[in-house]
Design a protein that fits this description.
Layout (H helix, E strand, L loop, with lengths): L8 H13 L2 H20 L4 H43 L15 H23 L7
Length: 135
């Protein structure tokens, strides 16, 4: 079963913007804009307006990018979680109780993590003694 591509304009926009802004050419364009702005400083006498242009521009871009990046990261995290849940679900001997852990309260998650930390500490202790790990 192949998932359908997103039809939401915002999802498509966020994904394409994230791809575009993550490229080296986009970074170089941003650097070029800063260089041009800096070079024009003496021309405009380093005026308040000259400073306001870069401050306003970067603030607006940063404000909008926060939402686009968060949207993309949320989607990627959810997709990764589904993939991990599927691996847990299909592995023989895996604990299906570990599915959907991200929905648990912090205290319950800490309790489960502590149990796995004890298992890891025990395994490291056995490894130090020369005992091979059991699977």
């Amino acid at each position: 079963m192949r998932p359908t591509k997103s039809k939401s304009w915002f999802t498509r926009f966020a994904k394409s913007t994230a791809r575009l802004t993550g490229r080296a050419v986009t970074f170089m364009l941003a650097v070029a804009i800063i260089v041009v702005w800096a070079i024009t400083g003496p021309i405009f006498g380093f005026s308040d307006t000259w400073q306001l242009v870069i401050n306003t521009g970067t603030t607006i871009i940063t404000f909008l990018m926060v939402f686009l990046i968060q949207s993309t990261q949320n989607r990627d995290s959810e997709a990764m979680q589904v993939k991990l849940d599927e691996l847990i679900h299909v592995m023989k001997g895996a604990q299906n109780a570990l599915l959907d852990l991200e929905e648990l309260e912090e205290e319950e998650l800490d309790r489960i993590r502590a149990g796995y930390q004890r298992i890891a500490e025990q395994a490291r202790g056995e490894l130090r003694k020369g005992v091979r790990e059991r699977k």
